[in-house]
Amino acid sequence: MTASALTVGIVALHLLGALAALHAIRHARTPQGAIGWTLGLLLLPYVTLLPYLYLGSSRFLGYRVGHHAPAARPLPAAADTAPVDPGCARYAAISALQGRPFRGGHRLRLLIDGEVAFAAMLGAMTTAEHSLLVQFFIIHDDVLGRRLQQVLLERAAAGVRVCVLFDGIGSHALPQRYVDELRAGGVAIHRFATHRWRNRFQLNFRNHRKIVVVDGARGFVGGLNVGDEYLGRKPPLSPWRDTQLEIAGPAVADLQQLFAEDWQWITGAPPPLAPLPPADGEASALVVASGPADAQETGSLFFTAAIHAARQRVWLSTPYFVPDTAVRSALQLAVLRGVDVRVLIPARPDHRTVFLASTLHAYNAVRAGIGMFRYQPGFLHQKALLIDRDTAAIGSLNLDSRSFRLNFEVAALTVDHSFAAEVAAMLSADFARARAVDEREYREAPFLRRVAMHVARLFDPLL
Fold first, then answer.
1. Which of 212, 302, 348, 430 counts the highest number of beta carbons within 10 A?
2. Residue 242, exposed/middle/buried by CB under 10 A (0-12, 13-18, 19+)?
3. How many Å apart are CA 392 and CA 316, to the nearest integer?
4. C-alpha distances in Å from residue 463, one per residue of 73, 93, 333, 353
5. Helices marked H in 268-393 — which ranges?
6. CA 349 to each of CA 23, 159, 212, 358: distance values in angstroms, whole numbers, following the listed order
7. How far is it, in rounded angstroms, from Cα 166 to Cα 213?
8. Region 218-246: what's the mean pLDDT?
């Protein structure tokens, strides 16, 4: 390459960097993000242009916003199905944010850890007679993955319409033959991908939802993906601690609608849709969906509103503790109100950078009076929230920026004293197997490790 060609190349890169910096100034979510991208793009475009292409977008474009797919059938209001618990009123902001009401008349079942949860989910799948909708972030071609594959093939062979979604990045190791075998057996299966030109290069936007809907009547949400590690069969993270929720009642139609939106985005056609299921239980429930296509930062607002509603306790279980300013402030204000605030996090890392950032956030939380606990037996992947004596949420949302803003997520917010008592008993057992975090964890860490924590925290918007 001649010197003149090299000069032209450098000038072109700086011009492209300047254009990208203008885009960052206009579209970055926070002033800090805008400053960081702008400085990098202006001063070192040869280093930052490519990462900005893949990581710089703040919105998932083209996706239908507002959780109303044209494929979905209109649902009656909650009052047309069953009465809702009066305690739902304090979550009116979350209901308004979702654009859907709480629904009454649900039966709830808490599924603790992989063996119990997959026995329930696979067992429910085998009973499907009309439709089976399955969505996971990760599907592995291992023992558990092949068990799932066999059930799906059996249901398709029995005439059930089977639709499966998996995330293209989360399931990057899934071999094509696994998908081909399912398609050959009559299963409609697709990877969730950005696939529209405006999102083409974006790796940030992932579909992290875990949804199973059987005949439109029974639904499952939670933290479990399909892989042997989720059954605790892969050290050093085993035993794997996780939780799933089985829900039967009207809100299953909202789960079905949510799946339909993702399916419509990928395929352009609706999946099979069942009518509104009967209301034959006592619990009230609201399906909470969030994602980068939302007009607002739904995930962060959900946690903030739920924490602000607490008067007695806020117990949280999350594998990644990287709260934003709003959620951190909500937790601190809850402590000042005299609320019992406890957060359960892992003692073992599965992602080193996130673990380092979480450790620094845990130190700051302890200093603010928040009870932080590290789960000792194995890796904690559970996403659970308990508010006071009547409210619990189980789903796929972590307490980090990725779940707040970058991933498509789902959870079920439930109001029912009996179910909340079950979740409280589960979390009490978890806290009994945990070690309280104190300030020494940070202060007595080696100097370079403390520096690494602060460097990791710089990447909070991507964690």
1. 302
2. buried
3. 10
4. 36, 27, 24, 8
5. 298-308, 325-336, 352-367
6. 35, 44, 28, 10
7. 15
8. 95
**pLDDT exceeds 70 at position 77:** no
The answer to whether residue 66 is domain-embedded is no
Helix boundaries (H) for 409-457 = 417-432, 440-443, 447-457
277 and 129 in a common domain: yes
Are 262 and 304 members of one domain?
no
Of residues 68 and 31, more confidently modeled: 31
| 39 and 182 co-located in one domain | no
- CA atoms of 296 and 326, how far apart (whole Å): 13
- Reported as half-sphere exposure (CB side, CA atoms, 13 A), residue 218 has a value of 17
Tell me if 108 sits within 8 A of 243, measured CB to CB. no
Look at residue 280 and tell me if it is in a domain: yes
Q: Cα 427 vs. chain centroid, distance in angstroms?
A: 19
Number of domains in the chain: 3
Alpha-carbon distance of 305 to 287, in angstroms, equals 15
- Looking at the fold, whether 333 and 415 belong to one and the same domain comes out as yes
pLDDT surpasses 70 at 61: no
**pLDDT band, very low/low/confident/very high, at 459 (cuts 50, 70, 90):** confident
The pair of three-digit structure tokens given for residue 361, joined into one six-digit string: 């956030």
What DSSP letter does each residue of 196-260 carry, written as one string? SGGGTT--S-EE---EEEETTTEEEEES--BSGGGGT-STTSPSPB-EEEEEESTHHHHHHHHHH
Whether the pLDDT of residue 16 is over 80: the answer is no
- Read off the pLDDT of residues 85-109 as tens digits, 9 standing for 90 and up: 999 999 999 999 999 999 999 999 9
pLDDT (tens digit, 9 = 90+) per residue, 326-384? 999 999 999 999 999 999 999 999 889 999 999 999 999 999 999 999 999 999 999 99
Positions annotated as catalytic residues are 208, 210, 215, 381, 383, 388
Tell me: do 124 and 9 sit in the same domain: no
Q: Check: CB of residue 212 under 8 Å from CB of residue 111.
A: no
**Above pLDDT 70, what percent of the chain?**
81
For residue 381, what are its two tokens? 């992947």
Which domain does 269 fall in, by range?
A: 78-89+102-284
Identify the CATH number of the domain in which residue 365 sits. 3.30.870.10
Separation CA 74–CA 324 (nearest Å): 35
Distance set, CA 157 to CA 129, 143, 176, 279 (Å): 11, 21, 21, 31
pLDDT of res. 9: 64
Q: Which residue is listed with tokens 């995330």?
A: 167
Q: 337 and 455 share a domain? A: yes
Q: Is the pLDDT of residue 196 over 70?
A: no
What is the bridge-based pairing of β-strands 131-136 and 161-167? parallel
